[in-house]
Amino acid sequence: MPRPSRHTIPAILAIVLFATPLTGGTAQAVETPPSARATTMLLRDAVAGLPTGTESREGYKRSSFRHWIDADRVIWSQEGHMAA
Asked: What is the DSSP string of 21-64?
């Protein structure tokens, strides 16, 4: 009989551990907390509810992003590049 590979025993052990409930008893239903329940709302209301703050560029160095090049040498605003 061939010897099992070195991965066989850990794989079987993992299957047994994940298949066995860790509670030692029967599984019980867990109620979803209110903060995790799905809600329905209009997009504009969801966007209005997003937190806002002032922009901070602390720690930003343009030289850290050398792959962001302006290949055509036309300096556009970010909005201009996004619209093109």
From this structure: -TTSS-----PPPGGGS-----HHHHHHTS-------TT--GGG
Q: What's the CA gap between 71 and 53, in Å, rounded?
A: 33
Q: How far is CA 41 from the centre of its chain?
A: 23
- Interatomic CA distance for residues 6 and 13, integer angstroms: 12
User: One digit per residue, pLDDT tens: the chain, 84 residues?
Assistant: 667 677 777 777 777 666 666 555 566 777 878 777 788 889 999 999 999 999 888 888 878 877 777 777 776 666 665 655
Confidence (pTM)? 0.28
Q: Please enumerate in sequence order all residues whose Cβ is within 8 A of that of 21, keeping only pairs 6 or more positions apart, or say none.
A: 27
Question: CA 41, CA 47: separation in Å to the nearest integer?
Answer: 10
**Residue indicated by tokens 């992003």:** 65
